């Protein structure tokens, strides 16, 4: 019966010389030429990317704040209108008048909700269009910069 551990890899690495391995790798790469790298151009490109990120974040935050403010205004207006509607219902006399008033209030509330929804959607779309335009311009610029860098390196 063998007492040798099958997971003992020390024999495999017994003759391994890390210094010789590093020298062999250096010798292998000594004949490889690396194309000219424009570090300044790369840094400038990344700076532009960061500026875009900052601009789009700023636009998103400003839009979100405006959207939240508008929604708060809409809620406040809805509460005022609901209070006025409740008062109108209490002043209605017969059940026919109450039903007629309820239908009118529902119609008005529906139209207002639809208008508010349209306004919110337009605000969101405007922000998306603004951000998309900035990103599209920067992507086009980035691709042109990459093309120029490849041409310079050739």
Brief sketch in words of this structure:
The chain has 154 residues and is mainly alpha-helical. Helices cover 81% and strands 0% of the residues. The chain has helices at 18-29, 39-91, 95-153.
What does the model show?
Helix content is 81%, strand content 0%. It is mainly α. It has one domain.
Please outline the helices and strands.
Elements: H1 18-29, H2 39-91, H3 95-153
Helix pairs in contact: 2-3
Question: What descriptive keywords fit this protein?
Answer:
154 residues, mainly alpha
Biggest pleated-sheet summary: none
Poorly predicted parts: none
Q: How many domain modules?
A: 1
- Mind telling me the C-alpha Rg? 35 Å
Helicity level, as a percent range?
over 70%
DSSP summary: helix tally:
3
Distance between the termini: 65 Å
Average predicted local confidence, pLDDT: 85
Anisotropy-based shape? elongated
Which percent range describes the beta-strand content?
under 5%
Number of E-state strands = 0
What is the helix/strand order? HHH
Judged by helices, strands and strand pairing, the structural class is: mainly alpha
